[in-house]
Design goal:
This protein is α+β, with helices and mostly antiparallel strands. It is 40% helix and 21% strand. The protein has a single domain, classed as Aminopeptidase (3-Layer(aba) Sandwich), CATH 3.40.630.30. The chain contains eight helices and seven strands, in the order E-H-H-H-E-E-H-H-H-E-H-E-H-E-E. Strand 6 and strand 7 form a beta hairpin. Bound molecules: coenzyme A. The site of coenzyme A (COA) has 20 residues, from strand 4, helix 7 and helix 8.
Length: 198
């Protein structure tokens, strides 16, 4: 039995953990990083904080089993991150400190975050990340989470939704395509941007 609810600040450690445990193209990324929080600082913390009303934490009898974080306006979100999210992390994670390359690459993204091109945000202003622990996968929860977000975005009159997915994450790509997402762009590293018009 699972329950959905909006995230609060006290959820961040559990959300960061779920992000890490599914962070290598859907699999456990723990072995890839010395710092277990860096993925979460980029891919779940700011999104869960920016507009919790577009996010769901998935609870089951063992605790947090995953989440979906949604952002209604990606360009407003990126501006908010510049003001509110990145400055503290840039002090905490200076560039050029000796650390393994996978961690350093994430630190570079904190200092020089990618800006989503206007060609994407104009058509698909919203974006999402969804990560379920293995025990919560394959039971229809991912579909429910996407449908809940789509309903909320439609209520706000938002015209489109996009997401980025690692080229190696064949399972997630098939899941999104099954739900109606289509390819919008291919990134330099082969990752896909998929979009859904609402
Ligand atoms: C990818 C993920 C979100 C999918 O959620 P899920 O709860 O496992 O998927 P669901 O059970 O809700 O599947 C929904 C539908 O997609 C279909 N589907 C799921 N995976 C599929 C696949 N690999 N190929 C084809 N269809 C697939 C299901 O059959 C189901 O169809 P139906 O609703 O028409 O019967 C989840 O597995 C997950 O969090 N994986 C690890 C983290 C991850 O990779 N996140 C995405 C990062 S971009």
């Amino acid at each position: 039995m699972v329950r959905f609810r909006a995230p609060i600040a006290a959820d961040l450690p559990a959300l960061y953990r779920a992000c890490l445990l599914t962070g290598r193209a859907g699999d456990d990324a723990s072995a890839d990083h010395d710092d277990p929080d860096l993925l979460g600082h980029l891919w779940v913390g700011p999104q869960a904080t920016f507009d919790p009303a577009l996010c769901d934490v998935v609870d089951d009898e063992r605790g947090v089993a995953g989440y979906l974080v949604g952002v209604g306006s990606t360009s407003d979100f990126e501006a908010w991150c510049e003001q509110r999210w990145w400055p503290g992390l840039r002090e905490r994670y200076p560039l050029g400190v000796a650390r393994r390359e996978a961690d350093e690459a994430l630190v570079r993204s904190i200092h020089r975050p990618e800006v989503t091109p206007a060609a994407i945000t104009e058509v698909f202003p919203a974006h999402l990340h969804v990560n379920l622990l293995p025990r919560a996968q394959g039971q229809g929860i991912g579909r429910m989470l996407i449908e809940r977000l789509v309903d909320r975005l439609r209520q706000r009159g938002i015209s489109g939704l996009h997401l980025g997915v690692d080229a190696d994450n064949a399972r997630a790509i098939a899941f999104y395509r099954h739900l109606g997402f289509a390819e919008v762009a291919v990134e330099d590293d082969g990752g896909l941007i998929l979009g859904l018009r609402l």
